[in-house]
Amino acid sequence: MAAGNRNHRVTITQKTRTADDYGQGIETSSTYRTVWAGIQPMAGYEKERAGKLTSDQMHVVTIRRDDDVTADMEITWGTRTLKIVSAEPNDRTHETRIICEEEKAV
After folding, report:
1. What is the dihedral sign for C-alpha 74, 75, 76, 80?
2. What is the CATH number of domain 3-105?
3. Alpha-carbon Rg for the chain in angstroms
4. Which phi-psi region, left, alpha or beta, contains residue 3 (left: φ > 0; alpha: ψ -120 to 50)?
5. Of 21, 36, 63, 96, which one is least surrounded by beta carbons within 10 A?
6. What is the pLDDT of residues 16-72, one digit of tens each?
């Protein structure tokens, strides 16, 4: 993908667990990296979760190669949150192709 096709600024976040003053586990998100990305929608579908109808949209996010992006991370794109399903670095293209799922309440 040419650099001009990576025209969306996104933030990749990772969850970290720390303990509060009482020893209770707290999960917070911290910024892993902010990058330029190409984002292409894939399939969209609706399903029922916990008695509520949700609309899910799959996206392919392409960034410069990064071997450390994992399925435990999320991508923030403006006000939208994309959960990473898989990340596939590519030696030939020097890119990482990330499959993400975006869940919206209907």
Report:
1. negative
2. 2.40.10.270
3. 16
4. alpha
5. 21
6. 888 888 888 888 899 999 999 999 998 776 666 667 777 788 999 999 999 999 999
